[in-house]
Amino acid sequence: MSKHIHLVSFLINSPINHTVLSWSQPGDNRLDALHDLKLWQELAQTLERGRFDGIFFADTPGVFDRYRDSHEDAVKYGVCWPCMDPVVLLSALAAATTHLGLAATMSTSSYQPWTIVRQLGTLDYLSGGRVGWNIVTGHLRGEHRALGLHQLEHDRRYDRADEYMEVCYKLWNSVKPGAILADRESGIYADPSKVEFIDHQGEFFSCQTVSPVLPSPQGHPVLFQAGSSGRGQQFAVSHADVVFSIQPNVPGMKRFTVNLEDAARAAGKKTPGVSFGIQPIVGGTEEEAKRKLADLVEKLPIDACLARLSGTMGVDFAGMELDQPLAEIETQASQGLMKAFSNIEGDKPLTLREVAVRWGLAVGKPQIVGTPEQVAAEMERIWCETGCYGYNVTPTVMASSVTDFVDQVVPILQAKGVYRTEYEGTTLRENLGL
């Protein structure tokens, strides 16, 4: 268990975060935020006021195109479409904050190792060491089709990603301590003997160069990873500083933690901290909070939910019986998530309709619904029971749900002594206690 609860805001640079049709809710500002940096900067400043570790962007390169073998439902309802580049946005948020971590999902399918090291390393250096990278192998068919790439099968993507990280480590370690002289009098900028030339020739990658960027105060970006399958967890314990996981309930969270510990032990590695996804819904009373949740559920179009679910799971659910139990289906997409959500309530499997609605509401993350006191108490209980590092917190209506959480829930967590009152350092790595 971490010293205190760590919080990261979990967002997408699109019309929604993780709640389908949230852009249509009264007061939601996401459509304006798509073309107004000031709204994003104000959100980041609110999170920094709430002493969040960071702002963390998921990404959907390409489009959800599995459902009905078409992109139309995703486009029609604005289901993560358009999905704007999160790294470009993080650059603007770095300028508006001083402590808040800045994390983005970047797929090893979409980018070469050198490109990611350069993009994220530039931002990490400019921000004083506040950047994180959520490593994903790229399970979306739409991403591969957009780039004209052949999609490898599930485990093979992780084999490729292991070599991908090998190249990144070489690049990150290319510039040795004392390499930069910047001697104006002699005109010598750097000592070439302390800048290592990389000559990587592997199965998947070839890279001959030196690092394109200088190391930040935290060395290189903090590494997040979200693998839930057995092979994904092997990758996570080898590379991740923090593992992010979506589990539907506390028993699922406990199982995930035990499995991750087993994977780390088998690999002879230290177990990374685990951050679980949650969706708080805060009301002045419990009834008000439940009413907010009901309003969100009522507006969910089932086709939009199925488009989101089909895209993530890699299965076209069109034409399947909605009210039959969701059997475990073999998929080359997100195998861990499919297993987690095929049977999540004891021995009673959920129907496809029930899973689709949960997916449309929060991509399967559990809701914590109630008054600020109830939400804070439940977050503390889950933290204690699971021994997790903290939470990736996804909002519903923007930006009011973020402001409500920061102004009403955070002070209660601080008063309980389970959440920081000041930042511990200046880098993301320091604030995460890594």
Q: How would you characterize the overall build of this protein?
A:
It is a single chain. By secondary structure, this protein is an alpha/beta fold. It is 42% helix and 15% strand. It is built from 16 helices and 13 strands. It has an 8-stranded parallel barrel with strand order 1-2-3-4-9-10-11-13, surrounded by 8 helices. Strands 5-6 form a two-stranded antiparallel sheet. A hairpin with a 4-residue loop joins β7 and β8 (206-209).
Features of the shown structure:
two-stranded antiparallel ribbon; globular; 13 strands; alpha/beta; 434 residues; 42% helix
Order of helices and strands: EHHEHHEHEHHEEEEEHEHEHHHHEHEHH
Rg value: 21 Å
Shape category: globular
pLDDT under 50 segments (min length 5)? none
* Strand content range: 15-25%
Report the helical percentage: 40-55%
Task: Characterize the largest beta sheet: strand count, sense, and whether it forms a barrel.
Answer: 8 strands, parallel, barrel
Provide the spatial order of strands within the biggest beta sheet: 1-2-3-4-9-10-11-13
Overall SS class: alpha/beta
Number of strands: 13
Mean pLDDT: 94
> How far is the first residue's CA from the last residue's CA?
13 Å
Total helical segments: 16
List strands and helices in order, with pairings.
Layout: E1 6-12, H1 30-33, H2 37-49, E2 54-58, H3 72-77, H4 86-96, E3 101-107, H5 113-126, E4 131-136, H6 141-147, H7 154-172, E5 180-183, E6 188-190, E7 198-201, E8 206-209, E9 222-225, H8 230-239, E10 242-245, H9 250-267, E11 273-282, H10 286-298, H11 302-313, H12 335-342, H13 352-362, E12 367-370, H14 372-386, E13 390-393, H15 400-416, H16 428-431
